[in-house]
Design brief:
Shape: globular
Radius of gyration: 13 Å
Helix content: under 10%
Number of helices: 0
Strand content: over 45%
Length: about 110
């Protein structure tokens, strides 16, 4: 079992920044993928960015240049730095851990006001 605890969401004005954190605990494999997805009201959950334990990353094309994913393997924590936020970035952001199984966090709300 893996437990994911997200933090860092909130309300920010357009153009502002937020940093999300997701800490994993439990049975953590050394080889894993952690990342972020988001779901806006009335829309499907979509990929934001993922980072593998080997250092590779992958981003949604539309978010490249504004969002940066990073991780601290020693702390089993993944971060998402979000800059130049736009109202369309408003969504619930979910952390995901994938290894021998897939686990999701409870989600953290990000609201960007215009």
């Amino acid at each position: 079992q893996v437990r994911l605890v997200e933090s860092g969401g909130g309300l920010v004005q357009a153009g502002g920044s937020l940093r999300l954190s997701c800490a994993a605990s439990g049975i953590i494999r050394s080889i894993n993928v952690m990342g972020w997805y988001r779901q806006a009201p009335g829309k499907q959950r979509e990929l934001v960015a993922i980072a593998s334990s080997d250092g590779s990353t992958n981003y949604a094309d539309s978010l490249k240049g504004r969002f940066t994913i990073s991780r601290d393997n020693a702390r089993s924590t993944v971060y998402l730095q979000m800059n130049s936020l736009k109202p369309e970035d408003t969504a619930v952001y979910f952390c995901k851990y994938s290894a021998y199984a897939t686990y999701w966090g409870q989600g953290t709300q990000v609201t960007v006001s215009s």
